[in-house]
Amino acid sequence: MKAIVPYKIKGGKSRLSPFLSPSEREKLAEHMLDDVVSTLSGLEVSIVREEGLNAVLNKIIVNSTEPVLIIMPDLPLISVEHIQDIISSKEDVVISPGRGGGTNILFLRSPSTFRVDYHGASFLKHLQIAKDKGLLTRVYESFYASCDIDEVDDLAELIIHGLGKAAEYLRSIGVSLQIMSGRARVKR
Amino acid sequence: MKAIVPYKIKGGKSRLSPFLSPSEREKLAEHMLDDVVSTLSGLEVSIVREEGLNAVLNKIIVNSTEPVLIIMPDLPLISVEHIQDIISSKEDVVISPGRGGGTNILFLRSPSTFRVDYHGASFLKHLQIAKDKGLLTRVYESFYASCDIDEVDDLAELIIHGLGKAAEYLRSIGVSLQIMSGRARVKR
User: Fold this and answer.
1) Which end of chain A has fewer CB atoms at under 10 Å, N or C?
2) Residue B18 pLDDT
3) What ipTM score was computed for the predicted complex, to two decimals?
4) Chain B residues close to A99, C-beta within 8 Å
5) H or E stretch including B83?
6) Which chain A residues contact residue B142 at CB under 8 A?
7) Number of alpha carbons in the 13 Å side-chain half-sphere of residue A11
8) Is A137 helix (H, G, I), strand (E, B) or coil?
9) Chains A–B, number of C-beta pairs less than 8 Å apart
10) Burial label, B45 (beta-carbon count in 10 A; 0-12, 13-18, 19+)
11) Which domains does chain B have, with CATH numbers?
12) What phi and psi values does residue B62 have, to the nearest 5 degrees?
């Protein structure tokens, strides 16, 4: 089974820029990628460029004869158990939503019958595509799988729940929790 | 089994004030409460005042001889299945985290051995209290159970995933998704 991880080598995570320097953002992204890849043991992992993502992925899946797992590289809270649970699903398509309508993990049992449409509210688009093609779909709703680390407030989730390299790195550069009356946020 | 729902009758949901009027916030809060209570069928539901929450809850649980479920009233995405899964857990304590370290759902099999400590990063505090008391704990991590509707951006989750009265109400007052390059947010 193939796992595909879209990744932006340089200049990613720009929405963390009010809080982390360019080199810190790059290191955090690398550690998050490490955390994600470490959950994919036993799968054939390919890392693809994030630029032109839909065209790149659709070119891959149209000719795929084996199941494909597409997973974002900024999900440092996922574990081997999440991945095993997702890829052992009986449904044709498994979609794990992120905050704000994103698709954080997409599992395609018969990839060649599907077309991906990332960006915007891709969760809703992927549900619709599966429905239009008559594919059985499972929504895999997990808090940890929903936590893509894109915005400064997301870093709090990594500090609170993280056990991997990305969380360790954040703590090592002095990021800690700011406890307030509402949600905890981060400070340095 | 007893289910306790802390609720602020008047003036709640103030962090939604940039987007919803006072009467709209009050109606949304009522619909969310309805959605939550509808998942608790078969349980004896008590609604308690949100003011002085810890003292109120600790007074109740110290004398409880049966299991107690404490659930926040702003979780319109939870379903009967979540509740059944939580209350059938074998562990002494089940904690379901919200964004920013909150405790959205807390299940206590032997309530009198526990003390609650809501506000701030209560998820971490409740984990620690359970550990200190030698209680077996399950972290029930669910995206839908994590979605407490407190801030304007949270409304997008309700529009995207909601199937109940609160989502229907939001749509009826003209709230819809604003699809952007990052996460979808709401507009009217």
Assistant:
1) C
2) 85
3) 0.96
4) 157, 183
5) helix B80-87
6) 141-143
7) 3
8) strand
9) 88
10) middle
11) 2-150 (3.90.550.10)
12) -60, -30
